[in-house]
Amino acid sequence: MKRVCLALMLSFLQALVLMLCSAHMPMPLLAADVGQERIIWEAVDPEGDDHGPGTYIYPTNPAFAPFSGIFDLTGFKVSCDDENVYFDTELANISNIWNAPEGFSHQLINVFIDTTPGAGRTDTLKEGALVSFMPQYAWDVKIKIMGWGGSRVYFASDGDVSGGRSEGLSVEALPNGKTIRAAVSQTVIGEPLDSWKYYVLVGSQDGYGLDNFRPVMGEAGQWVFGGGSDLNINPNVIDILAPENGPYSQESQLGSWNASERRYAMLVPANAELHRDRFSVSIMIVVVAALGIVAAMAYVWLKGRRTTGKG
Ligand SMILES: [Ca+2]
Ligand SMILES: [Ca+2]
User: Fold this and answer.
1) In this model, does residue 7 exceed pLDDT 60?
2) Is the whole-model pTM more than 0.85?
3) How far is the CA of 308 from the centre of ligand 2 (A)?
4) Total Cβ atoms within 10 A of residue 181
5) Ligand 2 centre and the CA of 241: distance in Å?
6) Ligand (nearest to CA of 249)
Protein backbone atom coordinates (compact mmCIF):
# COMPACT_ATOMS: atom_id res chain seq x y z
CA MET A 1 0.00 0.00 0.00
CA LYS A 2 2.76 2.38 0.99
CA ARG A 3 4.60 1.59 -2.26
CA VAL A 4 1.48 2.46 -4.23
CA CYS A 5 1.19 5.76 -2.31
CA LEU A 6 4.86 6.50 -3.04
CA ALA A 7 4.39 5.76 -6.78
CA LEU A 8 1.29 7.97 -6.92
CA MET A 9 3.12 10.78 -5.15
CA LEU A 10 6.07 10.57 -7.58
CA SER A 11 3.72 10.62 -10.61
CA PHE A 12 2.01 13.68 -9.16
CA LEU A 13 5.35 15.46 -8.72
CA GLN A 14 6.38 14.57 -12.26
CA ALA A 15 3.13 16.07 -13.57
CA LEU A 16 3.71 19.19 -11.45
CA VAL A 17 7.20 19.66 -12.91
CA LEU A 18 5.80 19.36 -16.45
CA MET A 19 3.04 21.85 -15.64
CA LEU A 20 5.59 24.37 -14.36
CA CYS A 21 7.67 23.91 -17.51
CA SER A 22 4.72 24.76 -19.74
CA ALA A 23 3.52 27.64 -17.59
CA HIS A 24 6.65 29.78 -17.42
CA MET A 25 8.54 29.55 -20.71
CA PRO A 26 7.91 29.61 -24.41
CA MET A 27 8.25 25.84 -24.84
CA PRO A 28 11.67 25.20 -26.41
CA LEU A 29 11.74 22.21 -28.72
CA LEU A 30 14.64 19.83 -29.08
CA ALA A 31 17.33 20.86 -31.55
CA ALA A 32 17.86 18.49 -34.46
CA ASP A 33 19.22 18.36 -37.95
CA VAL A 34 16.60 18.48 -40.68
CA GLY A 35 18.16 17.66 -44.03
CA GLN A 36 20.93 20.16 -44.57
CA GLU A 37 19.43 22.68 -42.18
CA ARG A 38 20.71 22.87 -38.63
CA ILE A 39 18.21 24.13 -36.05
CA ILE A 40 19.67 26.84 -33.83
CA TRP A 41 16.62 27.50 -31.64
CA GLU A 42 12.89 27.04 -31.80
CA ALA A 43 9.90 27.59 -29.57
CA VAL A 44 6.11 27.60 -29.64
CA ASP A 45 3.76 30.41 -28.64
CA PRO A 46 0.27 30.01 -27.14
CA GLU A 47 -2.63 29.93 -29.60
CA GLY A 48 -5.38 32.52 -29.37
CA ASP A 49 -3.30 35.34 -27.84
CA ASP A 50 -3.50 37.65 -30.88
CA HIS A 51 -4.78 40.32 -28.49
CA GLY A 52 -1.61 42.28 -27.56
CA PRO A 53 -1.74 43.03 -23.82
CA GLY A 54 -5.06 41.15 -23.62
CA THR A 55 -7.46 43.86 -24.82
CA TYR A 56 -6.78 44.33 -28.53
CA ILE A 57 -9.47 43.56 -31.11
CA TYR A 58 -9.20 43.24 -34.89
CA PRO A 59 -10.16 45.99 -37.37
CA THR A 60 -13.74 45.69 -38.60
CA ASN A 61 -13.16 45.58 -42.38
CA PRO A 62 -14.11 42.19 -43.95
CA ALA A 63 -10.51 41.93 -45.22
CA PHE A 64 -9.61 40.86 -41.66
CA ALA A 65 -12.11 37.97 -41.54
CA PRO A 66 -12.30 35.65 -39.64
CA PHE A 67 -11.05 38.34 -37.18
CA SER A 68 -8.75 35.92 -35.36
CA GLY A 69 -5.69 33.85 -36.14
CA ILE A 70 -4.20 36.10 -38.86
CA PHE A 71 -1.84 37.71 -36.34
CA ASP A 72 -1.61 34.73 -33.98
CA LEU A 73 2.03 33.65 -33.74
CA THR A 74 2.18 29.95 -32.93
CA GLY A 75 5.86 29.10 -33.41
CA PHE A 76 9.30 30.42 -34.31
CA LYS A 77 12.38 28.61 -35.56
CA VAL A 78 15.91 29.73 -36.43
CA SER A 79 17.94 27.35 -38.56
CA CYS A 80 20.84 27.59 -40.98
CA ASP A 81 22.75 25.88 -43.75
CA ASP A 82 26.16 26.82 -45.13
CA GLU A 83 24.83 29.94 -46.84
CA ASN A 84 21.75 31.31 -45.07
CA VAL A 85 20.08 31.77 -41.74
CA TYR A 86 16.35 30.93 -41.87
CA PHE A 87 13.80 32.62 -39.64
CA ASP A 88 10.50 30.70 -39.76
CA THR A 89 7.51 32.37 -38.16
CA GLU A 90 4.44 30.16 -37.88
CA LEU A 91 0.97 31.69 -37.64
CA ALA A 92 -2.46 30.18 -37.01
CA ASN A 93 -3.69 31.47 -40.37
CA ILE A 94 -1.89 33.20 -43.25
CA SER A 95 -4.15 34.86 -45.74
CA ASN A 96 -3.10 36.42 -49.04
CA ILE A 97 -6.26 38.33 -49.75
CA TRP A 98 -4.45 41.05 -51.77
CA ASN A 99 -2.12 38.64 -53.63
CA ALA A 100 1.27 39.81 -52.40
CA PRO A 101 4.05 38.10 -54.39
CA GLU A 102 5.55 36.68 -51.15
CA GLY A 103 2.32 34.76 -50.50
CA PHE A 104 0.97 36.70 -47.50
CA SER A 105 -0.84 40.04 -47.28
CA HIS A 106 -1.50 41.00 -43.68
CA GLN A 107 1.43 40.11 -41.51
CA LEU A 108 4.27 42.42 -40.52
CA ILE A 109 6.90 40.53 -38.55
CA ASN A 110 9.84 42.18 -36.82
CA VAL A 111 12.64 39.99 -35.49
CA PHE A 112 15.14 41.87 -33.31
CA ILE A 113 18.30 39.95 -32.45
CA ASP A 114 20.78 40.61 -29.68
CA THR A 115 23.90 39.16 -31.28
CA THR A 116 26.54 41.13 -29.37
CA PRO A 117 26.47 41.59 -25.58
CA GLY A 118 27.24 45.13 -24.43
CA ALA A 119 26.24 46.76 -27.72
CA GLY A 120 23.08 47.65 -29.58
CA ARG A 121 19.89 49.73 -29.27
CA THR A 122 16.89 49.68 -26.98
CA ASP A 123 14.55 51.58 -29.34
CA THR A 124 13.04 50.24 -32.56
CA LEU A 125 15.24 52.47 -34.81
CA LYS A 126 12.11 53.69 -36.61
CA GLU A 127 8.92 54.72 -34.78
CA GLY A 128 6.04 52.34 -35.44
CA ALA A 129 5.85 49.34 -33.11
CA LEU A 130 5.90 51.70 -30.08
CA VAL A 131 7.91 49.37 -27.84
CA SER A 132 11.36 49.44 -26.25
CA PHE A 133 13.81 46.67 -25.41
CA MET A 134 15.48 45.55 -22.22
CA PRO A 135 18.90 47.33 -21.94
CA GLN A 136 20.76 44.12 -21.01
CA TYR A 137 19.49 42.60 -24.28
CA ALA A 138 19.91 45.56 -26.63
CA TRP A 139 19.43 44.43 -30.24
CA ASP A 140 22.06 44.53 -32.98
CA VAL A 141 20.14 43.20 -36.02
CA LYS A 142 16.54 43.91 -37.03
CA ILE A 143 14.77 41.89 -39.70
CA LYS A 144 11.58 43.47 -41.00
CA ILE A 145 9.44 40.90 -42.78
CA MET A 146 6.44 41.89 -44.95
CA GLY A 147 4.92 41.53 -48.40
CA TRP A 148 5.33 43.62 -51.57
CA GLY A 149 9.13 43.73 -51.45
CA GLY A 150 9.18 45.70 -48.19
CA SER A 151 11.38 43.28 -46.21
CA ARG A 152 14.69 44.71 -44.99
CA VAL A 153 17.64 44.04 -42.67
CA TYR A 154 18.80 46.87 -40.40
CA PHE A 155 21.67 47.18 -37.99
CA ALA A 156 21.75 49.06 -34.69
CA SER A 157 24.42 51.34 -36.17
CA ASP A 158 22.01 52.50 -38.92
CA GLY A 159 20.58 56.01 -38.80
CA ASP A 160 16.83 56.38 -38.38
CA VAL A 161 16.51 57.41 -42.05
CA SER A 162 18.27 54.24 -43.22
CA GLY A 163 16.42 52.39 -45.97
CA GLY A 164 17.84 49.06 -44.78
CA ARG A 165 19.23 46.27 -46.92
CA SER A 166 17.29 44.00 -49.22
CA GLU A 167 20.33 42.26 -50.79
CA GLY A 168 20.86 38.79 -49.33
CA LEU A 169 17.31 38.68 -47.96
CA SER A 170 14.36 36.74 -49.36
CA VAL A 171 10.92 36.25 -47.87
CA GLU A 172 8.13 33.81 -48.75
CA ALA A 173 5.18 31.91 -47.32
CA LEU A 174 6.01 28.19 -47.27
CA PRO A 175 3.65 25.66 -48.95
CA ASN A 176 2.22 24.54 -45.56
CA GLY A 177 0.21 27.79 -45.59
CA LYS A 178 1.21 28.62 -42.01
CA THR A 179 4.88 29.56 -42.09
CA ILE A 180 6.55 32.76 -43.27
CA ARG A 181 10.23 32.23 -43.96
CA ALA A 182 12.90 34.93 -44.13
CA ALA A 183 16.23 33.70 -45.50
CA VAL A 184 19.18 35.98 -44.72
CA SER A 185 22.62 35.40 -46.19
CA GLN A 186 25.37 34.76 -43.66
CA THR A 187 27.41 37.33 -45.57
CA VAL A 188 24.93 39.90 -44.18
CA ILE A 189 24.36 38.81 -40.56
CA GLY A 190 27.09 36.24 -39.93
CA GLU A 191 26.92 32.68 -38.66
CA PRO A 192 24.20 32.25 -36.01
CA LEU A 193 25.38 31.55 -32.47
CA ASP A 194 23.52 29.66 -29.74
CA SER A 195 23.86 32.79 -27.60
CA TRP A 196 21.74 35.00 -29.91
CA LYS A 197 18.61 36.37 -28.22
CA TYR A 198 15.38 36.91 -30.14
CA TYR A 199 12.46 39.30 -29.90
CA VAL A 200 9.65 38.25 -32.29
CA LEU A 201 6.86 40.79 -32.90
CA VAL A 202 3.77 40.31 -35.07
CA GLY A 203 1.82 43.34 -36.27
CA SER A 204 -0.46 44.20 -39.15
CA GLN A 205 1.12 45.53 -42.33
CA ASP A 206 -0.19 48.98 -43.24
CA GLY A 207 1.21 50.84 -46.24
CA TYR A 208 0.37 54.14 -44.53
CA GLY A 209 1.39 53.19 -40.98
CA LEU A 210 4.56 54.31 -39.20
CA ASP A 211 7.26 51.75 -40.06
CA ASN A 212 4.32 49.93 -41.74
CA PHE A 213 2.59 49.11 -38.43
CA ARG A 214 -1.22 49.37 -38.42
CA PRO A 215 -2.18 51.46 -35.38
CA VAL A 216 -4.04 50.18 -32.34
CA MET A 217 -6.45 52.85 -31.12
CA GLY A 218 -9.03 53.06 -28.33
CA GLU A 219 -11.86 51.98 -30.62
CA ALA A 220 -11.58 49.52 -33.52
CA GLY A 221 -12.35 50.93 -36.97
CA GLN A 222 -12.34 49.62 -40.55
CA TRP A 223 -8.54 49.84 -40.73
CA VAL A 224 -7.37 50.23 -37.14
CA PHE A 225 -7.31 47.86 -34.19
CA GLY A 226 -9.18 48.69 -30.99
CA GLY A 227 -8.58 48.06 -27.30
CA GLY A 228 -5.53 50.32 -27.01
CA SER A 229 -5.53 54.09 -26.53
CA ASP A 230 -5.61 57.23 -28.66
CA LEU A 231 -2.43 58.54 -27.00
CA ASN A 232 0.05 57.06 -29.49
CA ILE A 233 1.84 55.27 -26.65
CA ASN A 234 0.44 51.69 -26.54
CA PRO A 235 2.24 49.03 -28.64
CA ASN A 236 1.03 48.47 -32.18
CA VAL A 237 2.01 44.82 -31.73
CA ILE A 238 -0.62 42.08 -31.69
CA ASP A 239 1.36 39.00 -30.64
CA ILE A 240 4.90 38.39 -29.36
CA LEU A 241 6.83 35.21 -28.63
CA ALA A 242 6.55 35.04 -24.84
CA PRO A 243 5.65 32.74 -21.95
CA GLU A 244 1.98 32.10 -21.27
CA ASN A 245 2.22 33.14 -17.60
CA GLY A 246 4.52 34.84 -15.12
CA PRO A 247 6.12 38.29 -14.89
CA TYR A 248 7.31 38.17 -18.53
CA SER A 249 4.08 36.97 -20.12
CA GLN A 250 3.01 38.67 -23.35
CA GLU A 251 0.24 40.50 -21.49
CA SER A 252 2.56 41.94 -18.87
CA GLN A 253 5.26 42.87 -21.41
CA LEU A 254 2.89 44.57 -23.89
CA GLY A 255 0.92 46.17 -21.06
CA SER A 256 3.98 47.78 -19.43
CA TRP A 257 3.57 51.18 -21.16
CA ASN A 258 2.92 54.30 -19.12
CA ALA A 259 0.95 57.21 -20.59
CA SER A 260 1.80 59.86 -17.97
CA GLU A 261 5.54 59.17 -18.25
CA ARG A 262 5.32 58.71 -22.06
CA ARG A 263 7.10 55.37 -21.57
CA TYR A 264 6.75 52.59 -24.15
CA ALA A 265 6.18 48.97 -23.14
CA MET A 266 9.51 47.19 -22.57
CA LEU A 267 10.05 43.77 -24.08
CA VAL A 268 12.40 40.92 -23.13
CA PRO A 269 13.80 38.32 -25.52
CA ALA A 270 11.89 35.04 -25.78
CA ASN A 271 15.00 33.04 -24.89
CA ALA A 272 16.44 35.39 -22.25
CA GLU A 273 18.20 33.78 -19.30
CA LEU A 274 15.74 35.46 -16.94
CA HIS A 275 13.01 33.03 -18.07
CA ARG A 276 15.37 30.19 -17.22
CA ASP A 277 16.27 31.77 -13.84
CA ARG A 278 12.62 31.81 -12.89
CA PHE A 279 12.21 28.32 -14.27
CA SER A 280 15.19 27.09 -12.20
CA VAL A 281 13.76 28.61 -9.02
CA SER A 282 10.40 26.89 -9.68
CA ILE A 283 12.12 23.56 -10.27
CA MET A 284 14.24 24.01 -7.13
CA ILE A 285 11.12 24.62 -5.01
CA VAL A 286 9.45 21.51 -6.44
CA VAL A 287 12.56 19.36 -5.87
CA VAL A 288 12.95 20.52 -2.26
CA ALA A 289 9.22 19.92 -1.62
CA ALA A 290 9.46 16.46 -3.25
CA LEU A 291 12.49 15.50 -1.15
CA GLY A 292 10.66 16.64 1.98
CA ILE A 293 7.59 14.54 1.14
CA VAL A 294 9.66 11.46 0.28
CA ALA A 295 11.67 11.82 3.53
CA ALA A 296 8.45 12.15 5.56
CA MET A 297 6.95 9.06 3.88
CA ALA A 298 10.15 7.08 4.43
CA TYR A 299 10.10 8.07 8.11
CA VAL A 300 6.45 6.96 8.50
CA TRP A 301 7.18 3.70 6.67
CA LEU A 302 10.26 2.90 8.77
CA LYS A 303 8.39 3.77 11.95
CA GLY A 304 5.55 1.47 10.84
CA ARG A 305 8.00 -1.39 10.21
CA ARG A 306 9.65 -0.91 13.58
CA THR A 307 6.26 -0.99 15.31
CA THR A 308 5.26 -4.14 13.40
CA GLY A 309 8.65 -5.72 14.30
CA LYS A 310 8.11 -5.03 17.99
CA GLY A 311 4.59 -6.45 17.80
CA1 LIG B 1 0.18 33.26 -30.26
CA1 LIG C 1 2.31 35.30 -27.80
Assistant:
1) no
2) no
3) 57
4) 20
5) 5
6) 2
